[in-house]
What does this fold into?
Amino acid sequence: MKLVFLGPPGAGKGTLAVKITGLLNAPHISTGNIFREAISSASPLGLKVKSIIDAGKLVDDSTTIGLIRERLAREDVKDSYILDGFPRTITQAEALAAFSSVDRVINFDVPDSVVIERLSGRLVCRKCGFNWHKTFNPPGKDGVCGKCGGEIYTREDDKAEAVKKRLDVYREQTAPLIEYYRNKGLLTNIDARPNVDLIVENVKKLLQP
Ligand code: AP5
Ligand code: MG
It folds into this structure.
């Protein structure tokens, strides 16, 4: 099944995708993770996007579309994938429709207050990329990832000013995709306020044949 995970920053798209990828045998593709890997390896792409991402703005459509077009041309995603964080603009959605047919779009719905609570407490592993949370899912021993032992850090774009910018950008450029996909009959809303396990159960029910 070819899935798009939609929702504001901090809705839990990445956390849920990590849990659901194995259940569906659908590779998890996160544009945010691809950009962060490029930044940590200081590749030309990383150097180009670092200041944009740190400020909470969107990377330009043509760069982002090019990345996804290339990734979706690979054999492992011929029949199934989970796209997390793409598309984020109508231009990206139209480009995606031209090179892949999405089966379903799940919109993870949360109010701004929850977004702020989740992002202000998020801790990320530099090595495996896992998203921990100071309160809701602490990483274990101070400063070290409980999964792989990697170093834990706070994303630059989780600072208050960048979060505010990301929410503005989400409202202006990404939220219109809800209507776009509803009109195509592809959209389902999921309440993303409960705990992760309950949301995973609700997604599983939704995707049962
Ligand atoms: P990206 O990494 O995609 O950021 P985002 O959409 O802002 O989403 P987040 O990763 O912040 O949130 P999430 O929904 O994945 O939540 P998470 O699971 O981590 O993109 C980063 C940047 O890259 C963008 O700002 C942009 O610059 C650029 N970019 C990426 N894609 C692009 C595109 N298509 N076009 C242009 N630019 C692009 O959860 C958050 C926290 O909450 C975690 O700490 C987690 O442990 C906790 N949590 C999650 N679920 C729950 C729950 N149910 N209960 C309690 N805690 C929870
Ligand atoms: Mg994410």
About this structure: The pocket of magnesium ion (ligand 2) is lined by residues 13-14, 30, 32, 85 (CB under 6 Å).
